[in-house]
Structures are given as structure tokens and as C-alpha cells.
Specification:
3 helices; alpha/beta
């Protein structure tokens, strides 16, 4: 009787994955700013969440997006998240590579505040 090859143990299924914000892209849509957050998890998964902020001010738009993303509950952090304007908003290819560090700080501050508030409510 032939032996079956030994199988490695399957990876356990997780009810929820914890995600972290990797990149944030901004795009002007008329008088509003669309914010797309690229999220990654510890298993290499990738997903994008999009929200259109009810303002044309980029600072308020990233704050709005940070509150939206942090309020999801399964996003654990946003450290080292990069904020950039989309290619359509850039005037040159080099502009598309430039990070907006001031907006990164705004996003991270608002994200951390909202995440702390969510965790306090869960206790």
C-alpha cells in the first residue's frame, strides 16, 4: 500500500486580520478631496479603503480619513504611513514621488487620537 506524502499543518484561519496603514493617496475631486488608504496585514494581504472628505482642505481631508480608518476597529497602526498626491495631481513624474510629511504628521496624530478613543470605548 502506497504511503501518502506528509502534509504540513495548514495555517490557522483567523477570524479577523489586523491591518496597518501603509500609504495614503490624495486626489482632488472638484471641491472635495478623495483619500485612498492602502492597508496591509501581517500575512501579506492588501486592501484599499476610500473615503471622500467633505472639504477641499487637504489637512482636514487627511484628518477625516484618519478618523474613518481608525474607527474601523481592525486597523492597528499607521506608523510610517506615506502620504502622497496621486499622479493626476502631480505636475511632473518627480512630484508623484514626493511625500507630504506635514500631512503625514496630521494623519498620524488624528489616527492615534481616534484609535485611542476607540480602545477606551472597548474597555
Amino acid at each position: 500500500m502506497a504511503r501518502r506524502p506528509a502534509r504540513s499543518a495548514p495555517m490557522p484561519l483567523r477570524a479577523t486580520s489586523m491591518w496597518r496603514v501603509d500609504q495614503v493617496f490624495l486626489n482632488r475631486k472638484g471641491l472635495r478631496v478623495e483619500v485612498v488608504c492602502s492597508l496591509v496585514n501581517d500575512q501579506g494581504g492588501l486592501r484599499n479603503l476610500s473615503v471622500t472628505a467633505p472639504t477641499e482642505d487637504p489637512v482636514e481631508a487627511v484628518r477625516h480619513a484618519a478618523r474613518f480608518i481608525a474607527g474601523k476597529g481592525n486597523v492597528s497602526g499607521a506608523r510610517q504611513a506615506r502620504v502622497r498626491w496621486t499622479r493626476e495631481q502631480a505636475t511632473t513624474e518627480q512630484d508623484a514621488l514626493i511625500r507630504d510629511r506635514a500631512l503625514e504628521d496630521e494623519f498620524l496624530d488624528e489616527f492615534e487620537e481616534t484609535l485611542a478613543a476607540v480602545r477606551d470605548q472597548q474597555r
